């Protein structure tokens, strides 16, 4: 099995979100970038396939040279090789077109991506990639087993979960549940040293237009002060008469 | 030309988010000087769609589509879009909409923007506002393709009545074997509980509850309010509650009318996940908890005293007001 794990390079979840250049660009000043959490769950599951089923695991990112430390971290966690497609990630559709080329050239039969990146929350890349590569697709994946070219996938649905049987080639949009939080791995010194010498290939992009363009950003209006109440009667009164939500 | 809206149903009943999507589609249709066509899949009764502005409904009725199937549903919607020459397709932000939207985008070669919070600022070029960075900010994005897909964020637009005379048409999309490559082996779904996705009210609790054995009062309160239960990340990581209840940046987003947070300090990742909720209430014994900065109403005090009191008083209130 040859697995490609798609790694999005995103601001850490504790980041303060600000914009520059007249609110047209995300302000990276002082922001720590990490592997997108949904992707990290998927990468950890891929490590299991590597160790238990002898899978080969490559990681890929579409982005500029600034994303390489994030790819090195994925190598330190245990991926065998990394690929960076050298073009800015403008929208989910164009990223999927770049990755479709990587999947075809590399002959991957399982692609594990995150359900969505926690920055732009597009959530479209895995589904588009599946369609472009003629693969089966399961989103919001919280369980994945592979036996030969057969796969059993558990998908989270609103209010529950469903179990699906499908076959490779397969693309999944993973999230917490595909492995547990406690399964996540912190790279050790040996992994970090090895990651330095593992291959990180820079690939030039294919011609792929973006279908959408973000013009500007804005932050939510500042919140008013909290109203503190002394007892539950006051609270019920306010929720009923002022907020009108009960 | 028309605006096509996919109106989701559950067990044959049109969902509230679908009516919100029709209201939104009607808004776009008015901006563009056209009308709204809805497509429903195995819904029993679609007459309500007229109330929110649909001029036509394409009714798909096919036993093979009783269970959701991203590939087949996207295929059906794509065929309807082509037949209707739809230039804008409106979806919601449900798990199923998010599953099928990318497939549909490829089928129709359409740009897609999810989590949209308002009507387009302009329709030519087509520019919409949507939430990004898990509700910590908004982006204004242009869709440049001829056909456009938007996913409406839950509880952002509301229901807007616009009584329209509506025609019903049976619609039989051409589905091929490839649409059914995936076999659903089992569905495990609690039918007696309100889901976080559908809930108008969510009651959520955190580490302040000290242990999973203390969740009884949270469930009681949720029952009284007809609410869904949710929890913070540490609570789900410790296994006190299932992952499906975890609310926040790496968990589920909540866009309810009322969000009640009990014993949750309010980490930035949690607050991001609940930002789209309309009214937020916090109950916490630590007045310095960051949640008080994000909430509309708050009580500083011991959850173990306040929650049972709140439940009793709400029961009395409900009895009086119903």
- What portion of the residues of chain A fall into strands of 2 or more residues? 25-35%
What order do the SSEs of chain B take from the amino end to the carboxyl end, as H and E?
A: EEEHEEHEHEEEEEEEEHEHEHEHEH
Which structural category do the helix and sheet elements of chain B fall into?
A: alpha/beta
Query: Gyration radius of chain B, to the nearest Å?
Result: 21 Å
Task: Describe the largest sheet of chain B.
Answer: 7 strands, parallel
SSE string of chain A, helices as H and strands as E: EEEEEHEHEHEHEEEEHEEEH
- What is the count of structural domains of chain B? 2
- General form of chain A: globular
Named CATH architecture of the largest domain in chain B: 3-Layer(aba) Sandwich
Average pLDDT, all residues of chain B: 95
Second-tier CATH architecture of chain A: 3-Layer(aba) Sandwich
Q: Biggest interface and its residues per chain?
A: A-B, 79 and 89 residues
- Radius of gyration of chain A, rounded? 21 Å
DSSP helix fraction of chain B: 25-40%
Uncertain residue ranges of chain A: none
What does this structure look like?
The complex is a heterodimer of chains A (246) and B (322). With 246 residues, chain A is an alpha/beta fold. The radius of gyration of chain A is 21 Å and the shape is globular. Chain A contains 6 helices and 15 strands. In chain A, the strands form 3 sheets. In chain A, strands 11-10-9-12-8-1-6-7-13 form a 9-stranded mixed beta sheet, sandwiched between helices. In chain A, strands 2-5 form a two-stranded antiparallel ribbon. The termini of chain A are far apart. The mean pLDDT of chain A is 96. In chain A, a hairpin with a 2-residue loop joins strand 9 and strand 10 (150-157). In chain A, helix 2 (68-77) packs across helix 5 (189-197). Chain A has one domain: Rossmann fold. Chain A has helices spanning 37-53, 68-77, 92-106, 125-133, 189-197, 232-242, and strands at 2-6, 9-11, 19-20, 25-26, 33-35, 56-62, 81-85, 110-114, 136-147, 150-157, 160-167, 170-174, 200-203, 212-218, 227-228. Chain B is an alpha/beta fold. Chain B has 2 domains: 2-180, Rossmann fold; 201-321, Rossmann fold (3-Layer(aba) Sandwich), CATH 3.40.50.1220. In chain B, strands 7-11-6-1-4-5-12 form a 7-stranded parallel beta sheet, sandwiched between helices. In chain B, strands 15-14-16-17-18 form a 5-stranded parallel beta sheet. In chain B, helix 2 (70-84) crosses helix 3 (95-107) and helix 4 (216-225) packs parallel to helix 8. Chain B is elongated and about 60 Å long. The interface between A and B is large, with 79 and 89 residues. Strand 11 (160-167) of chain A pairs antiparallel with strand 13 (183-189) of chain B, so a sheet runs across the interface.
